[in-house]
């Protein structure tokens, strides 16, 4: 029952990052505010990403049960307010509230898996939750379309309430957890961290809005420097940087950042190639990128079992090899659709092996007192990698978009020469992704050969 409740919660949080895309045309018609259209997505992604480390650390201090329930209630309140919003500005603010709670659901679900289940049980549970995440990605858009066409766009938010109440009842009944009380939350560090991360993500997600101004990046860098200074002096820092001294943990953190760069950059721009060059519809192009998600799900389930039975190095090596092979195939777009699909599947496999392997490894090795923040760092770095990738991989594409006149119209019908030009720019972006994949592979080659089986999780002093 507990696992069911946790999976339902992660489904709600994950599906809300995709379901809104289909409903936005109807929402804009009803609420107006097309000029701030994109912020309905940005607000949710921003708050759910930035709040992750804070939720993880707070749960380390005050206990998983209390913080999970608070996060879930915030998500439900945000969903209710989104469902009754009367203007686009209200919707954006309420989406931020919803995303803040959604960040807790995502982080605390995986943290609870690490705390409440044994190593062998955790391997199965991790596979289940990865499958639920993929299911949410797949069913989100068609579910949103069905609700908008047959009921009302408001119900894409209000439908969260009955399902969320089930999660709330299960959490209150099944999660047995007392407050920790062994440390305090570094409030100053939390504020500085969220300010630095928010400004960085705002720039990366709204690059076209902010243009080429570097002021916001300078602000982010300055605040992050203050955060690092504060952490060195804090008695209970928000992020325990001593975790990065362990070679396996450090490889996991950096590996998630690099894998996130590869995966999310590819999923952002390959659909453009499928629509503008291959001529597929938006629906078909969305279907064709499913090998990415399905590869992730399959690999997560396999990796979770391998890492329990063998050394950490084996699934990590498979991950790096898959990422390099997949991105290499994606640089060869001229070879046809089969090559592209094979590349997508391999990248998904590489991502699945990275995420599942390092999640289980990290939760086995770290002290229980920092389990929440360690788990949240994996997710945060993965998402930050994806946000940076979206900006970096757009650089070679941007010159083509600006020079090909038809791409600036609603029809976007390209000539043969324009298709070749756009294909070349996409291939160049994929070359950037391949270089990052090679970097991850080299990093993975030096992963220590340790066994998790039989190793008791580190305990609090």
Short overview:
This protein has 461 residues and is mainly alpha-helical. Helix content is 78%, strand content 0%. The protein contains 20 helices and no strands.
How would you describe this protein?
This protein has 461 residues and is mostly helical. The chain has 3 domains: 1-182, Growth Hormone, Chain: A (Up-down Bundle), CATH 1.20.1250.20; 186-235; 240-461, MFS general substrate transporter like domains (Growth Hormone, Chain: A). It is 78% helix and 0% strand. The chain contains 20 helices and no strands. It has helices at residues 2-15, 19-31, 39-50, 52-62, 64-83, 88-116, 119-150, 155-158, 160-174, 187-205, 207-210, 215-233, 247-276, 282-288, 290-309, 313-330, 337-365, 371-392, 394-403, 416-445. 48% of the residues are buried.
What are the salient characteristics of this protein?
461 residues, mainly alpha, Growth Hormone, Chain: A, 20 helices, globular
The average pLDDT is: 84
- Top CATH class of the largest domain: Mainly Alpha
Q: Strand portion, in percent?
A: under 5%
Distance between the termini: 32 Å
Q: In one word, what is the shape?
A: globular
- Total helical elements: 20
Under CATH, the topology of the largest domain is which?
A: Growth Hormone, Chain: A
Radius of gyration: 22 Å
Percent of residues in helices: over 70%
CATH-level-4 superfamily name of the largest domain? MFS general substrate transporter like domains
Return the structural class.
Answer: mainly alpha
The largest β sheet comes out as:
none
Counted up, domains total: 3
Task: Give the beta-strand count.
Answer: 0
């Amino acid at each position: 029952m507990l696992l069911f409740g946790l999976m339902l919660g992660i489904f709600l949080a994950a599906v809300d990052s995709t379901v809104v895309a289909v409903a936005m045309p109807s929402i804009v018609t009803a609420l107006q505010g097309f000029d701030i259209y994109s912020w309905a997505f940005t607000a949710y992604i921003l708050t759910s990403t930035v709040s992750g480390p804070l939720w993880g650390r707070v749960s380390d201090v005050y206990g998983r049960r209390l913080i999970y329930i608070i996060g879930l209630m915030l998500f439900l309140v945000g969903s209710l307010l989104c469902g009754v919003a009367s203007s686009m500005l209200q919707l954006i603010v309420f989406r931020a509230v919803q995303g803040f709670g959604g960040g807790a659901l995502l982080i605390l679900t995986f943290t609870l898996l690490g705390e409440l289940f044994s190593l062998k049980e955790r391997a199965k549970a991790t596979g289940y939750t990865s499958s639920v995440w993929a299911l949410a990605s797949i069913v989100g858009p068609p579910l949103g379309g069905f609700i908008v066409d047959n009921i009302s766009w408001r119900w894409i938010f209000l439908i969260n309430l009955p399902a969320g109440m089930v999660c709330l009842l299960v959490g209150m009944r099944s999660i047995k957890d007392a407050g920790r009380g062994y440390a305090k939350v570094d409030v100053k560090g939390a504020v500085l961290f969220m300010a630095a991360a928010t400004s960085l993500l705002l720039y990366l997600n709204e690059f076209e809005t902010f243009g080429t101004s570097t002021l916001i990046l300078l602000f982010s860098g300055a605040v992050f420097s203050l955060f690092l200074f504060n952490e060195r002096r804090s008695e209970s820092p928000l992020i325990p940087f001593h975790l990065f001294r362990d070679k396996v943990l450090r490889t996991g953190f950096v590996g998630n950042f690099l894998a996130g760069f590869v995966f999310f950059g590819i999923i952002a721009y390959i659909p453009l190639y499928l629509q503008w060059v291959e001529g597929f519809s938006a629906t078909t192009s969305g279907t064709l990128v499913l090998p990415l998600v399905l590869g992730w799900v399959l690999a997560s389930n396999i990796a979770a079992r391998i890492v329990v039975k063998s050394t950490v190095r084996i699934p990590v090596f498979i991950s790096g090899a898959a990422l390099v092979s997949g991105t290499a195939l994606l640089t060869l777009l001229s070879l046809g659709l089969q090559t592209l699909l094979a590349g997508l599947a391999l990248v998904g496999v590489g991502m699945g092996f990275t995420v599942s392997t390092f999640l289980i490894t990290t939760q086995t090795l770290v002290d229980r007192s920092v389990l929440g923040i360690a788990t949240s760092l994996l997710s945060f770095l993965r998402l930050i990698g994806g946000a940076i990738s979206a900006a970096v991989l757009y650089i070679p594409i941007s010159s083509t978009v600006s020079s090909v006149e038809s791409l600036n119209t609603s029809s976007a019908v390209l000539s043969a020469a324009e298709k070749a030009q756009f294909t070349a720019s996409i291939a160049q972006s994929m070359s950037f992704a391949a270089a990052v994949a090679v970097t991850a592979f080299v990093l993975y080659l030096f992963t220590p050969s340790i066994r998790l089986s039989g190793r008791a999780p580190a305990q609090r002093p």
